[in-house]
Amino acid sequence: MTVKIELTFASIDEATAFLAGKASPKTDTPAKPDPKPAAEKTAKKETTAPAPAPAADTKPSADTAPTAVPYEKTGLPEKIAACVKKDRDGVVALLAEFGAKKGSELKPEQYAAFGEKIDALLAPAADLS
């Protein structure tokens, strides 16, 4: 069984507040029962509608999914602090690569890529002797 729920918001802030559980969706008018039988609607949609969207239980890719985790809870501040002790110039260069002067200026979609690169800076240097 597949259930599709579609919510419409006036702004991204309103949608974010709803997804964070801080607001409920606004309903201007109560839902009216559809006079057409479900089978008739389904048949009409199948012939004219484009392919359906993925089911709600599938995970969207990291590139398209909004990250709801605040910067402070990503673990990046701690990694940056540890890395500054080891290679301050490297951290400054890495932040500049992402267009930021400090970690809190990173965009949520940059967290994963920045995390991978800061982990590489934190990794112990390989002993080639």
Radius of gyration: 23 Å
Number of strands: 0
Shape: elongated
Class computed from helices, strands and strand pairing: mainly alpha
Sheet with the most strands?
none
Q: How much of the residues is beta strand, in percent?
A: under 5%
For the termini, the CA-CA separation is 61 Å
Low-confidence stretches: none
Helix content: 40-55%
Describe the structure.
- The protein is mostly helical.
- Helix 3 (76-97) crosses helix 4 (111-122).
- The longest helix is centred in the C-terminal third of the chain and has 22 residues, at 76-97.
- Helices cover 41% and strands 0% of the residues.
- The termini are far apart.
Tell me briefly what this model is.
By secondary structure, this protein is mainly alpha-helical. It has helices at 12-19, 38-48, 76-97, 111-122.
